[in-house]
Design goal:
Elements lengths: L17 E3 L8 E11 L3 H13 L2 E5 L3 E3 L13 E15 H14 L4 H6 L8 E16 L7 E12 L7 H12 L11 E4 L1
Parallel strand pairs: 1-7
Antiparallel strand pairs: 2-5, 2-6, 3-5, 4-5, 6-7, 7-8
Amino acid sequence: MMHNMHKNLADLSLETLKKQTPELLQTQSVTAVLLALGSNYQAEHYLPLVRKDLAALGGIQLSTAFENPDFTSTEAQPKPDYTNQCVYLRLGEPMTLQQLQQVFKDLEGDCHRQRLTEAQTPIKKVTMDIDILLIETLLIEVVSDENSLSKNKDFEESNWIVMADRYPFKAHERAGIEELIKGHFLKGHMKQPRCYSK
């Protein structure tokens, strides 16, 4: 599902977007999300599976999948490489951040993610890790205009928020986000005001 692209895209800057902790946003209604997917165990099986599940939630756009070394790997203790990919998901129906976090934990569980086992072993087999990098919420303001034929108007504006616990982004996350932005999948949704009359 494509939306009209915003004409002035030069103002888009990840550094200037508001950053907030997820704990403060639990009840926010989310309309779109930018995710980082990661797997270091059978990624060729689990990435397509989770992408299919995400597509069932709304429209998705994908960055290139990158293979990256585990940054905690050492010569003495080598670890498997991760396959990482960013996903832009425009939800079919808004959800709270808390609901989304539970959905993503359930998707990780559907991929047989074993967090307790991972914590007990030095080399973690991560079938699927889904991290929320940015969320889009809608700001709706009702304005009363005496000169209008319609007394009340709703002004709706998208509001992108960076998850403070994920910022600054890792190199592969930034590369995936920038690829999606350059591909115009996110640009058209950044601070795009729309006006609806009642």
